[in-house]
Amino acid sequence: SLESSNFLDVVFNVLQDNNKIQKTNGGIAELNAMDNIQKALLPTLMCAAASQGLTEDLKNMIFSNTGGTGKVSSALCAKLGDYDKRTALHLASSEGHVETVKFLLSLVEESDEKIDSQYVNVSAIDRFGTTPLRNAIDGGHLECVKLLANAGAKLSGMKHSKEGITLFNRAS
Fold it and tell me: Is 104 a residue whose pLDDT tops 80?
């Protein structure tokens, strides 16, 4: 199941090994197929690792060179999110995995004009209209709320519950 660290490792290693084989024996069609496989699977694997607080596994996935044609990178997959557009930050925040949230936020670069990252959008909106900050608030994960608020995360037009506003104000 996706709840096993070993499963995540096996699938991720197959992606890497398959890429090595294709680079030596395959042509561009195989590499394009690898891009599509990575784009379909890697965001979901990253989200599974984040939802379980498997920070080291997540680091390995994000910073790996998974290959293909090079058009689909681990960084792109981290930012894309899964089939529901939920990112690793959504899942880590939702489950209250403070160390995983800290790691993901450490990838964010701040400047006067914007808060952005190659890997993480602190205010990403999933297909349900929620952000990582909203997930942390809904889960009652005060430390995650504080981390996200300090990183500039937004609620993005969400309907705010009375409890959520209280929690957000306590964290700010």
Answer: yes
